[in-house]
Amino acid sequence: MFFSIVITTYNAEAFILDALNSLKNQIFQDFEWIITDDCSTDKTVDICKTWMAENPEFLPRLKMIESKVNTGVSANTNRGLKVASGEWVHVLSGDDALLEHALESVHDFVCKNPEISVLQGVAAYYDTDFSEANFKGNLSENYKTSDFFNLPASGQYRLLLNSCHVISPAVFTKLRIAESVDFRDENIPMIDDWPLWLKLTKNGYRFYFLNQILVKYRLQKHSITNENQGFLVSDLHRKCRPVYRLYIAPNIGFFKKITYHLDYAFKEILYRFFNSSKNPISILTMKILRIFKKPFLEKNNQHDA
Is the pTM of this model over 0.90? Predict the structure, then answer.
């Protein structure tokens, strides 16, 4: 198989059919499917099994892994990656969907550029569902760092020490290099992507950019990065603390460490004492911060092309 698509699920009953059908409808079909479920308490597993029974033609290249305990996204992803056999791997969240040309586009791009081992495309962001009314924009980089993909791996690594610039839902990697850095870090159960990008770039694997929309990403309330809707500051900074401790602090200077600690302390104060959409201090502070860290969400008419 050329691709292994690892579908990670946890209580995704409302969305999993979108993910499954997006693979069913791929133009390029040389891939295996691996569904790995992290002990869902809803009907996610039942829906998957029903879909599999209704689509028996895909069973020879479809595997399903069920965990009896909830282990977190990193371990759940690793269970799928460790049984993958494709040359390239993509991790698809159970509430996202690939565009029908995604695998074909990646296949053609990497075959024309055999030096590539890691690439990122563009993600189309939606609020709750994939209707036209809920389209929010296309995201290719988290912050205004337009030179990120032009840098060597060492330069990308230095930027990643500051923030996760990579749009993870749109990333494809060669399986062998993900394996060479020991996949996701299960010591950080809820942040599986940023440590991996740090490991890859530190080991000399550069991110390349494919300027095509590959995935539809759902901004919905159960997302890790969006689970505190209605608040000005999420607790994502708490989840990222192990990334700082294990991957960033050992590789930065003294004054940079002070900056990180001050940033964390500032966000923690906002989170604990001013975290209300009606608090004027929080509103003003977050508006100032967003001036310097504004996402690239570019609306256009080609997001479903």
Answer: no
Same domain, 136 and 34: yes
Beta strands in 31-160 (DSSP E): 31-37, 62-66, 88-93, 97-98, 118-127, 135-139
Instruction: Give the integer Cα–Cα distance in Å for 236 and 238.
Output: 5
Q: Which amino acid is at 295?
A: P
pLDDT value for 140: 87
Q: What is the mean pLDDT of each run of 10 residues along the chain (305 residues)?
A: 97 97 98 98 98 97 97 97 98 97 98 98 93 92 69 95 92 98 95 96 97 91 44 70 93 90 80 68 68 50 44
**Are 162 and 280 in a shared domain?**
no
Which of 205, 202, 2 minimizes the C-alpha distance to 110?
2
Residue 150 burial by Cβ neighbours in a 10 Å radius (0-12, 13-18, 19+): exposed
From residue 53, how far is each of 11, 56, 58, 96, 98 by CA, in Å?
20, 6, 10, 22, 22
172 within a domain of the structure (yes/no): yes
H/E run at residue 269 = helix 254-273
Residues 242 and 222 grouped into a single domain: no
- Among 226, 247, 262, give the residue marking a domain's end: 226
Same domain as 12, residue 67: yes
**Number of other residues whose CB lies within 10 A of the CB of residue 251:** 12
DSSP SS3 for 201: helix
| Distance from C-alpha of 112 to C-alpha of 121, rounded to nearest angstrom | 16
- Dihedral over Cα of 61, 90, 237, 185: its sign: positive
Q: Quote the domain boundaries for residue 247.
A: 236-292
**Same domain for 145 and 26?**
yes
201 lies in the same domain as 107: yes
DSSP annotation of 275 reads -
Asked if residue 197 and residue 126 are part of one domain, the reply reads yes
